[in-house]
Amino acid sequence: MLRIGVVGYGTGGRHFHAPFIQAAEGCALAGIVARADKTVAAVQADYPGLPVFPSLDAMIASGEVDAVTITTPPETRRDLVLQAIAAGLHVVADKPFAPDAAGARDLDRAAKAKGVTLGVYQNRRWDSDLQTLKKVIETGGLGQVWRIHSRMDFDDPATLEAGPAGGLLRDLGSHLVDQMLYLLGPVTSVMAHLDHVLLDQGPTDAAFHISMSHASGQHSHVSASKLNRFAQRELRAYGSDGAYVSHSSDVQAQAIFAGLRPAQDLAAWGYEPESHWGSLYTAAGAARVPAEPGRYHAYYEAFVRAIHNNTAAPVTAAEGTRTLAVLDAARLSAEQGRSVSVDQEDSHG
User: Fold this and answer.
1) N or C: which end of the chain has fewer CB within 10 A?
2) pTM, to two decimals
3) Mode of pairing for the β-strands spanning 27-33 and 90-94
4) CATH of the structural domain 124-295+325-347, one choice from 3.40.1410.10, 3.40.250.10, 3.30.300.30, 3.30.360.10
5) Over the stretch 252-269, which tens digit does the pLDDT of each residue have?
């Protein structure tokens, strides 16, 4: 069993890491770093008897963990990742795992020099809707894929990370860009627009639209918002033989926030209701496509296998770097109002 400690117990640690570590085969949730009394109480209520540490130093000194997940606020993440690497621990870094592509390359080099596995937690590769679209593409349902449109709108102002160091581009942008790289491969150029609001912490990008040209000749278009009082997830894919459209319910997140846990019934976890299945449109007509299950715990199972087999992490630091390179280019594109090329070293990982 790989003993994994979670550093941070906010929304990420509590809802999107600890439950899936607990459910993943080959993993053991070994402890949580939490300091505030309210946070410690939450850990103790959720996982009675689980060790709670006041700092990463204390967790390391305990000798109780083989790996850690760093899911603290973005501005603290880099130093904690480096501290864990220096201690010889394997690391899962929440997204965005560095401020920019240059910082990501530094973390990648540090992990390789120490001989530990560094993975980036791009868990939305294991969303039900994305896995379903992936299967549609792989089974030839669309023929030659031309382009993909992905939209993730939330009516959720409270979770917008405020200030110049935060913003939606680094948050949901990390997920949506990674998903397109996962499906279509490296990006060569980017055109982007950002919508900004002025908050107490400073100017904050609160919505974005990014158009990407891929080395394959395909195109993708991703957008997201949190302040526009509208919530809908949509995937649209166009190809030579038809189109695929889905509007999913983000079923894993809904279940987690409803108090369910994957370990309670793993076999039934992550299935979208039939009412939210996507449709494939071809010359034969429209057909509903049964949704593939969403499986965030599969990330951690793959992380364990990577360590045991000395193979690549499920999402490598190099892959995380190429996502950040696209986000860097998107920000520059929005600032300058032009298409921006993406560094090909980063594009190919």
Assistant:
1) N
2) 0.95
3) unpaired
4) 3.30.360.10
5) 999 999 999 999 999 999
